[in-house]
């Protein structure tokens, strides 16, 4: 009885020991980089020498208040990280701290960093016309090859994210690779003048390199090449359609998907 109690006390004492804390710089391949810096969001790109579970805390002061986790959905630790800091205000200084937990429970924490969002500016008129593939103007996603985790269209990685006008949100398939597709209904027949697509990425996977679009009349547009992630690439077209099915032709495999789709009409 006494030995059992002593054993229990020893277990509790061991469990109470805090995990070691180290500087994040010990495991960084290079300094964190800010990409897709927008008035309301930014992506932080981090590469580590060991697999860690990564998170970012940020806010107007060093009390932070907002939390962003990695966009990699494979589970567990990994070495390439892309947390998206959303809900930001234009032309504002923010405090940021990055942290990760290693396989042995070691906590790695960065120094505080300050970044500044750009001011809000009026969007320049696109020479291809106006974007009609937006939920706000009546477009909707009617079908997808799959949503990550089997979620609904309005889930965190559901199809609706492809046409919400916010590249910081993403539609992700559930590992469909080159077989991924998403179908959009514009709500009415439209004379198309252009198409746009920004691929999602998980560093070495989930990135679309080439896609095509099939209209509801069966016309095939493309294929179109996407050189890199991080930007929307646009392509002039001349077609008429109400429904458009965006199909992946070539990718780096995995949870392929898009950050944003645009369809232009004059």
From TrEMBL:
It comes from the Bacteria. InterPro entries: FA58C (IPR000421), Galactose-bd-like_sf (IPR008979). This is Discoidin domain-containing protein. Residues 124-266 form the F5/8 type C domain.
């Amino acid at each position: 009885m006494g030995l059992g109690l002593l054993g229990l006390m020893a277990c509790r004492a061991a469990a109470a020991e805090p995990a070691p804390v180290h500087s994040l710089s010990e495991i960084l391949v290079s300094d964190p980089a800010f990409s897709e810096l927008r008035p309301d969001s930014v992506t932080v790109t981090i590469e580590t020498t060991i697999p860690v579970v990564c998170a970012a805390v940020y806010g107007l002061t060093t009390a932070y208040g907002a939390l962003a986790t990695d966009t990699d959905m494979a589970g567990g630790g990994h070495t390439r990280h892309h947390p998206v800091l959303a809900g930001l205000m234009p032309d504002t200084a923010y405090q940021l701290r990055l942290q990760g937990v290693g396989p042995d429970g070691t906590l790695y924490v960065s120094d505080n960093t300050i970044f500044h969002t750009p001011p809000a500016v009026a969007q320049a008129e696109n020479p291809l016309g106006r974007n009609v593939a937006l939920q706000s103007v009546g477009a909707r996603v009617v079908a997808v090859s799959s949503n990550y985790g089997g979620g609904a269209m309005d889930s965190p990685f559901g199809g609706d994210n492809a046409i919400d006008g916010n590249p910081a949100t993403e539609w992700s398939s559930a590992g469909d690779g080159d077989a991924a597709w998403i179908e959009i209904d514009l709500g009415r027949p439209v004379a198309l003048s252009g198409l746009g697509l920004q691929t999602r990425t998980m560093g070495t996977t989930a990135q679309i390199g080439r896609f095509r679009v099939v209209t509801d009349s069966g016309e095939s547009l493309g294929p179109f090449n996407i050189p890199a992630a991080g930007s929307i690439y646009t392509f002039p077209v001349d077609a008429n359609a109400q429904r458009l099915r965006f199909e992946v032709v070539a990718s780096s495999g995995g949870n392929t998907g898009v950050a944003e789709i645009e369809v232009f009409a004059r």
